[in-house]
Write a structure and sequence with these properties.
With 379 residues, the chain is α/β, with parallel strands linked by helices. It folds into two domains: 14-210, Rossmann fold, CATH 3.40.50; 264-378. The protein is built from 15 helices and seven strands. A five-stranded parallel beta sheet has the order 2-5-6-1-7, sandwiched between helices. Strands 3-4 form a two-stranded antiparallel ribbon. Strand 5 (157-162), helix 6 and strand 6 form a beta-alpha-beta unit. Helix 9 crosses helix 10 (253-262), helix 9 (232-249) packs parallel to helix 11 and helix 14 packs antiparallel against helix 15. The longest helix has 25 residues, at 298-322. The protein is globular and about 65 Å long.
Amino acid sequence: MAARLSSVDQNVPREQGLVAPDGLTRWPHPRNCFSLFGQKDAEDALLSAYRSGRMPHAWLLQGREGIGKATLAYRFARFVLSNPDPFSDKVRHAFNLDVDKDSPVARQISLEAHPDLHVLRQTYNSANKKFYTSITMDATSRALRFLTMTSGNGKWRVLIVDSADKMNRNSANALLKTLEEPAPSAFLFLISHTPGRLSSTIRSRCHKLRLKDMEIDNLMKAVFNAGYHKTPKENKKAISDRKALALLSQGSVRRFLTFFDKDQLDTWTELNKLLDQIPDLNNSSLHHLSEQFNKNGGQEDFTLAVECICNWMSAQLHDSNTEIKTNGRWSKPSEILKIAEAWESIHLLRRETEIFNFDRQQSFLKIFWLLADIFRQKK
């Protein structure tokens, strides 16, 4: 038998205080989240499939980033590795995928040390001391080797891809072969925030499970469960800012906690104001906001700003499908196509800016000029 692989990538330099792209700086990682809020239907679907004995080997967990997809994948991993017999009384009578956080399996997964769970994600590039912008072929090869090994409990192995959106072409093609010829006794969970960007072949080989955007009540339960209210200062801030943060985060726990960490509520409120004024541009406010993206730490702010812009654009498309409005709403197929093409152009510009280290301030301004152009045509 081949040597066992650890579920954690050994080249992540934790001693430098770096956080992998699938985590946040001071909040619990999904593998350490033992409660799931607002996704009961999705959890029930996985539990029902498992105890039926006809569990699909590959699942595509879809939905907005930060709504519990990874948390659900880890919950299932803990449950199936703790209960390898899907026909046991414990599985048959289970109400959910809960596993005691002090159980041996749960402790091993929390420490990223369980031999039957592997997570495929972006790895650390020691040459430039940054994480790769995509999931590399090397990392994918290690994950696929993991699937060929014998399970430690003689039953299941679980592979979580977080996120499948970050696979490069070679990685995606390699994983596709495994999806077409599944490894025995293995479950694959592909987490995707934008499944439309995955190849149709990969999507067709997976059982799709869409998770809902979180309503404000469940969102607040999740962020408080993560420790949002632990200090008096944070508790005071929670009372004053949580409604605004919840609206800005659009149902995403990850986005909520990111906004809170940065203590930049005014910044993101200003961004929303600028978007609502399109096609008119307040050049003074626009340039003032864009200046922060070239400062230290501006890369993360730039990425977050582009995500906010794309979510705003998605809302325009959603509104056009439900109610025809004036003032920049889209009603004709040709108009909807224009904003969809702009959405793609903005994602491409963001990616090029990150890869080639373009001037982030200029890229941000270009995005607003592009949107103003399109909405001006609509008028």
